[in-house]
Design a protein that fits this description.
Layout (H helix, E strand, L loop, with lengths): L4 H11 L14 H6 L6 H14 L5 H13 L3 H13 L4 H19 L6 H9 L4 H9 L6 H23 L4 H23 L11 H10 L10
Helix pairs in contact: 1-9, 3-10, 4-5, 4-8, 4-9, 4-10, 6-7, 6-8, 9-10
Length: 227
Amino acid sequence: MESDPHSLLRLLQLASPALPVGGFSYSEGMEAAVAHQWVLDEATAQSWLLDHLHLVQSRSELPVMAQAIPAWQQHDARRLKQLNDWVMQTRETFEMRLQTEQMGRSLLIWLRNQADADPLRMQTCEDLPPTWPLAFALALSTHGITIRQGLVAAAFGWAENMVQAAIKAVPLGQLSGQRILAALAAEIPSAVDHAMHLPLENCQAYSPRLAIVSARHETQYSRLFRS
């Protein structure tokens, strides 16, 4: 299925780090990993983010989005609540929960200000209240794109934010950042394919090392990022 230009442009807008949801302010444990010298340079930053893509994004955030998109299209409020509750229950640290709540809330505010906002779906989303995967799935559900296209956009938007976090936190040069982004982009299709075939009962947010650095980041003395 080929997207029309309007749908493609909307998808690029949603995937952009310029989307006003605050994604740039989170490193998702990267800053703490740098502080503990688990991430030291381009190679270790790339390895960290590739692991994050395959062990966290493709097993948690992306499969929830994949299942939430048709639920939004059918306005299945019960299914949406089940998916949203799962996200909330599987955030392993305070900062992880704060991030998904804040970004979901910010995206809902943005969606409410779009010309094509559906009042009924906006109210359902507000009542959840939405986590990031549920709000992003709502944004993807009404623009004539496939689920796979939507997940690729979500994954690439995440990758861009994380690469920028690595550039600032390690720190790295722009060329290093572009090489890491290219490596992530090469792996996104397989991560998305895995996520699309993963039922909720097989999803997991079990990533002990990430949970450890996230918890330690909460009391880290010097921080650039909120996570």
